[in-house]
């Protein structure tokens, strides 16, 4: 489906399926997908992440995380520019150049100390800035919490990723697997706390996602108001 039709469909669904008082009209389906993801996590992802944390020294894990983050800086810069945040976008490009050279291919995060913090922007954030609503809450297989806007943005973000630029399918798959392992390892402590504290884990994760989405929208609205006021 062409991108413009996909985005249009997402906008229609976003306005028609969810309301302020019922942001999760797909709860029945979402809970089934959530249970599927939980089963996969318990059987594969969590044990792999725990083994990675236990057997790989922290400096190496940090270096891997830095490299993966660095590979996403150019796409973040593109999205910041699309959002009208030119200075921050150029900063992310500068961050990529600095960490790739001085930081030894991104193993070391030199740029942050030099006044170039990372932003980690995506096309989902760009759509948010353009006024596209998030729509109904959605749990995606393997990917977890999202919404209809995020679903529409996913193929665009994928095209902008390093994996899409790699000719070798094996290398691309290995990079994706490394990203998944790195992300899951970073969430080990968070998920442990959720397991211990949440009476309904699905509701806890959903509400946390929706609160974060609301905060991001508020930040985007504030930036837009500031930008319009400075004209």
TrEMBL record:
* Phosphoprotein is among the record's keywords: no
Domain of life, per lineage: Bacteria
Q: Which residues belong to the signal peptide in this entry?
A: 1-20
List keywords of the entry alphabetically. Answer: Lipoprotein, Signal
Cited Pfam families: MlaA (PF04333)
Protein family (similarity comment): Belongs to the MlaA family.
Please report the name of this protein according to its UniProt entry.
Answer: VacJ family lipoprotein
* Taxonomic source organism: Roseateles flavus
